[in-house]
């Protein structure tokens, strides 16, 4: 099996029974904030796109690059489609001209022509990507590969049961706006960033240890930030709180925990994977490439500047009355929202900075009051500050997912009272009837689910499944003193009270080994 690195989370898998192109991403994403690094735009995409199968793991724009898919990927390719709850991905791909779809039954091995086997695991909670993320398992002639991508299954046993895996591709770096955009003192930001960076690596080691593949390929990031306004997010400034460590940092951190089987693919690198070996060749030496990272970034910044400027010029729509349009789009959804609105529990304020960089319009999305209105000098749960032009653009294009556009762009700052609140982001990624209904249903089911099994970790008896997204705490739970951390997403719980210290709600059931279990109580959203 041959694996060609095509940048970020993208790769082309070639076997005698057919080729699969995964997640090709070349054009900037999220308001021209993210670019693939190393640059992959110089690859021979006409040839790479001439494939038998296309696999797009999810709709995040650093995986689903519509312009690139349209221009470069053969429309004869059969799309290996994850079993997502909504038809958005299929609809978008059909619009781009794809007509052949294989809707892979979730978590079932499918045998394709010539003995090529694939299995897709789709994750479908409201917090998995834009309502869905997935991983692809491939087998040909006894060689097995798992492209886990940036998906976060609770464990990898499903794949491990299919036989020993030879190549494991997974995310190791950050892909979020936390903590950089928060209006916090620099020392706090650095401390939170460092915690996050450590957690990302811990989670990666856990997955690697779960699967015990012969070779581990760090993929799916980090992106690079080429706009001057975002340049500080590149991990080149010696900031230990930067959440975007690159593949060379992965190699050194992995070596510290005894890892010796890492394979870094640059765009154009080729790995020949057999049941016994992995022979890799690179267009340039990997170490040398990352040693010159700053020079590469600076060169890219100059080369891509016109692209960024052209995108920026398209964002302004002064004809849009932002308040009115937000009312029209958002109020009907607030009316329908039960779980998410209750979970947010307070007003969320948007401060929109005008074209002059100074004037500010303040709009509140009032979740308890179910309305969008001007800010009324009140206490709010969250406050976001961003350019008015960005919101104008989102309204202009009818964007249904402000996470997969505004928030991932990192072109905003934020402040909040109290803990992280996942419902805020769940709502702003569900600005369509279809998505909102799905998410409401998911929370409904999830909140009602009775999770009775307990396990013992150290001095504590705790429920087996994490109250967040049901990770198995016998694998992901780490207890220190009276606190439990679930390493899947890093949420922390105070075991004496059961309180989640990371996010609102999500109480955990716990008691000391030598104490009696308290009377059962249901989970609460508030
Ligand atoms: S499943 Fe997300 S923190 Fe446990």
UniProtKB/TrEMBL annotation:
<keyword id="KW-0411">Iron-sulfur</keyword>
<feature type="domain" description="Rieske">
    <location>
        <begin position="461"/>
        <end position="522"/>
    </location>
</feature>
<keyword id="KW-0408">Iron</keyword>
<keyword id="KW-0479">Metal-binding</keyword>
<keyword id="KW-0001">2Fe-2S</keyword>
<protein>
    <submittedName>
        <fullName>MBL fold metallo-hydrolase</fullName>
    </submittedName>
</protein>
<dbReference type="Pfam" id="PF00355">
    <property type="entry name" value="Rieske"/>
</dbReference>
<dbReference type="InterPro" id="IPR036922">
    <property type="entry name" value="Rieske_2Fe-2S_sf"/>
</dbReference>
<dbReference type="InterPro" id="IPR036866">
    <property type="entry name" value="RibonucZ/Hydroxyglut_hydro"/>
</dbReference>
<dbReference type="Pfam" id="PF25451">
    <property type="entry name" value="SCP2_Rv3818"/>
</dbReference>
<dbReference type="InterPro" id="IPR057330">
    <property type="entry name" value="SCP2_Rv3818"/>
</dbReference>
<dbReference type="InterPro" id="IPR017941">
    <property type="entry name" value="Rieske_2Fe-2S"/>
</dbReference>
């Amino acid at each position: 099996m041959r694996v060609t690195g095509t940048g970020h989370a993208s790769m082309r898998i070639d076997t005698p029974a057919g080729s699969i192109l995964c997640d090709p991403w070349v054009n900037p994403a999220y308001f021209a904030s993210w670019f693939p690094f190393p640059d992959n735009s110089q690859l021979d995409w006409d040839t790479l796109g001439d494939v038998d199968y296309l696999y797009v793991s999810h709709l995040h724009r650093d995986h689903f690059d519509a312009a690139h898919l349209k221009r470069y990927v053969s429309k004869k390719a059969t799309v290996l489609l994850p079993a997502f709850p909504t038809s958005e991905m299929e609809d978008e791909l059909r619009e781009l001209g794809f007509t052949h779809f294989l809707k892979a039954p979730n978590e079932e091995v499918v045998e394709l022509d010539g003995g090529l086997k694939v299995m897709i695991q789709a994750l479908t909670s409201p917090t998995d990507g834009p309502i869905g993320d997935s991983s692809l398992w491939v087998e040909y002639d006894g060689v097995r590969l798992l492209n886990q991508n940036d998906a976060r299954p609770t464990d990898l046993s499903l794949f491990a049961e299919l036989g020993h895996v030879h190549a494991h591709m997974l995310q190791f770096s950050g892909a979020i706006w936390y903590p950089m955009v928060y209006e916090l003192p620099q020392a706090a930001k650095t401390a939170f960033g460092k915690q996050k960076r450590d957690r990302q690596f811990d989670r990666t080691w856990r997955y690697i240890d779960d699967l015990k593949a012969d070779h581990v390929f760090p993929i799916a990031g980090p992106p690079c930030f080429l706009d001057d306004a975002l340049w500080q997010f590149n991990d080149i400034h010696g900031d230990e709180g930067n959440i975007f460590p690159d593949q060379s940092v992965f190699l050194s951190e992995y070596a510290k925990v005894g890892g010796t089987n890492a394979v870094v693919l640059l765009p154009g690198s080729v790995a020949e994977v057999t049941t016994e070996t992995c022979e890799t060749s690179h267009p340039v030496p990997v170490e040398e490439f990352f040693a010159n990272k700053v020079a590469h970034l600076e060169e890219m910044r100059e080369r891509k500047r016109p692209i960024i400027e052209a995108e920026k010029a398209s964002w302004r729509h002064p004809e849009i009355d932002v308040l009115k349009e937000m009312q029209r789009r958002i109020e009907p959804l607030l009316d329908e929202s039960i779980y998410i609105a209750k979970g947010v529990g307070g007003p969320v304020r948007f401060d929109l900075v005008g074209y002059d960089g100074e004037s500010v319009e303040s709009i509140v999305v009032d979740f308890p009051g179910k309305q969008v209105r001007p800010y009324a000098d009140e206490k709010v749960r969250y406050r976001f500050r961003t350019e008015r032009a960005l919101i104008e653009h989102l309204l202009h294009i009818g964007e249904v997912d402000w996470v997969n556009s505004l928030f991932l762009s990192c072109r905003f700052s934020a402040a909040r009272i109290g803990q992280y609140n996942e419902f805020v982001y769940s709502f702003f990624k569900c600005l369509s009837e279809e998505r909102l209904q799905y998410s409401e249903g998911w929370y409904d089911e999830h909140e009602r689910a009775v999770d009775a099994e307990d396990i013992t970790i150290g001095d504590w008896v705790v429920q087996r499944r994490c109250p967040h997204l049901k990770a198995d705490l016998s694998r992901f739970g780490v207890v220190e003193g009276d606190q439990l951390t679930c390493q899947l997403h890093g949420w922390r719980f105070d075991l004496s009270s059961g309180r989640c210290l990371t996010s609102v709600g999500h109480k955990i059931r716990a008691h000391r080994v030598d104490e009696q279990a308290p009377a059962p109580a249901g989970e609460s959203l508030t």
